[in-house]
Amino acid sequence: MQSKHLIQVAMMTTILVILGLIPGIPLGFIPVPIVLQNLGVMLAAILLGTKKGSLSILLLFILGLFIPVFSGGRMSVPVFMGPTAGYVLAWLAVPLIVGRLSQWLKPQTTLMIFVVLFIAGVLVVDVIGSIWLGIYTGMPLLKALITNLVFIPGDTVKAMVAAVIAHRYKDSLIKQIG
């Protein structure tokens, strides 16, 4: 991998770590807080693409073995053994799905970028997270899915923000770094 690509991956991982420093908002009725790191995951997917976006998320997971990089000052092992594991592990799928949808849909407008990010970064992550939440807590799947509706408004805003950033800056960022 070229050094410019390594820098892109490292910079995005740094953004993911910084977003993890912002405390999550606990909801009380569900053991999963509202966090900003999934905004970084969507940005990694849309700005860096499938390979580099996935690498930046994987690097976050590896760093989390040694330092607290997840919201709430948590490290990888407790995250992967807790109620949020499904959501966090689903982050690895986001760049892959964004890449595939981008190949099919060729999103050029902010709206189309938003649609791609909403499908991959909101719907897929929330469904996988709900499945794990149901398994972890013993909650029926339908109830876990319904409970996760609380995340849709905030995650929708995050997908919109990522789409606007991507539409406005994707080409210029790649040219500056590349």
Q: Would you kindly provide a written description of the structure presented here, covering whatever features stand out?
A:
This protein has 178 residues and is mainly alpha-helical. The protein has one domain (1-175): Arp2/3 complex 21 kDa subunit ARPC3, CATH 1.10.1760.20. It has eight helices and no strands. 38% of the residues are buried. It is found in: Cell membrane. Belongs to the BioY family. The chain crosses the membrane at residues 5-22, 55-73, 79-99, 111-133, 145-166. It is a multi-pass membrane protein.
Instruction: Count every beta strand, where a strand is a DSSP E run of 2 or more residues.
Output: 0
Strand content of the residues, in percent?
under 5%
What Rg is obtained from the alpha carbons, in whole angstroms? 16 Å
Helix count, DSSP H or I runs of 4 or more residues: 8
Q: What is the terminal-to-terminal distance?
A: 13 Å
Structurally, the number of domains stands at 1
Order of helices and strands: HHHHHHHH
CATH architecture: Orthogonal Bundle
The CATH topology: Arp2/3 complex 21 kDa subunit ARPC3
Give the overall shape, derived from the CA principal axes.
Answer: globular
| Helix content estimate | over 70%
**Overall pLDDT level:** 92
The largest sheet, given as strand count, sense and whether it forms a barrel, is: none
Tell me the name of the CATH class.
Mainly Alpha
Membrane topology: Multi-pass membrane protein
GO molecular function, one term: biotin transmembrane transporter activity
Subcellular location: Cell membrane
Transmembrane segments: 5-22, 55-73, 79-99, 111-133, 145-166
